[in-house]
Amino acid sequence: MGFLLTLLYVTLAYLSVADILPALAPYRIMIWVGALAVFGSALAVVRNQFTFRGPQLYLMVGLMGAIVLSRLAIGWFGGALRAFPEFGLTAVVLYFVACNVSSLAKLRTLMTVFVLVSLYLVARGLLAYHFDLGADQFVLLQRVYTDPAASYRDILPRIRGVGFLEDPNDLAQNLLIALAFVGAAWRSARLGRNFLIVILPGLILLYGLYLTRSRGALLGLGVLVAFALKDRFGTVFSAVVSIILVAVMIALNYSAGRGLVVQEGRLNIWSDGLGMFKASPVLGVGFHAFTEYSSQTAHNSFLLCLVELGLLGCFFWLGMIVFSVIELNTLARLPATQQANTDLIRWAKVIRLGFFTFLVTSWFLSRTYVVTLFLLIGLSMALAEIARQRSVPNLPQIGFKWFALTGTIQVFLVFCVYIMVRMRSVLA
What we know:
The protein has helices spanning 2-15, 17-20, 29-48, 56-72, 77-100, 104-131, 135-138, 168-183, 191-212, 215-233, 235-251, 264-279, 301-332, 339-362, 371-389, 401-427; strands at residues 139-145, 152-159. By secondary structure, the protein is mostly helical.
């Protein structure tokens, strides 16, 4: 029961009942499904003897505490209580996935649901874009400017999703991850099957990605292709193919004449963010408070977390990501000579590919608290738990090396943002 409710919860999170079926919005279906999923997950934990060894579970508790403290620090006591439902409905996906995805078959099913939901959103976008069916909901009409001082040159239609995917950039990010998951279904010497299950859905997702016109997704696409081909064809070949694919997308007017470099306005926002961080470095300026001090959001997931939750909350957030990636790397490097490891290795590489794609695109998007991130963390935890339940021989122990690595990466990313902002002022 817990797994089926997890599938339903994830599906509703991406399709947004309030947007697809507004008449059902007053019934708070997500809350009821979530409550049932909590009960089902508790039963699954008892039945599957979940070990609770993944530190991501405890880091998530720390992140929730940091979110509450960030609002208490600015004197917003009512907001501290409201933080639980605001963030909890998203964060709980991590627990649902980690507790209920207890086999590789369930992991594959969850990924398939993710891909099917993505294909549905692309289909709705195509109907809206080409036939004007639901265009007001699934197409964003964006003004395209020649320069910041000029009047707009044209209207650019971009397909989008619903709910937290209503921004075309959000939809593009999810389509890239769906592409990574689709690739996992490829089987050697099965041309007919591969065409129906991998190539055709992949082309649909790629065309949907094209219609989002998301510039940040181009970089994500390059990373996706490079890492997907690297193990089979080598680093040089995969890099060349990646560059060629991105060049083809640009040649097809993917960006619709818009520049592909980081814009001045975004660097100004990052500069403002660094100023906010200096003002409150430990606990931050408050959860969801960035736009109270800036005209726009951060357009950088790491910076948004650092500014709103400070060093404390950012450490918990980044620690979940770092440990998950280390865990996936560990599983991906298991000896392939052992038959029991083959599937674990393949799925570890697939989830890791989705992770890398998400992280690269998140450098230009404010996606600190979205469902997709915690879904990926939950999948990595589930796969590691499956490996433990299988008693995989010679499974490397990670220990606490992630702790120091998280702190090092945190400092390095702050430095990266600072350098990019400083280079803006030097080149100006």
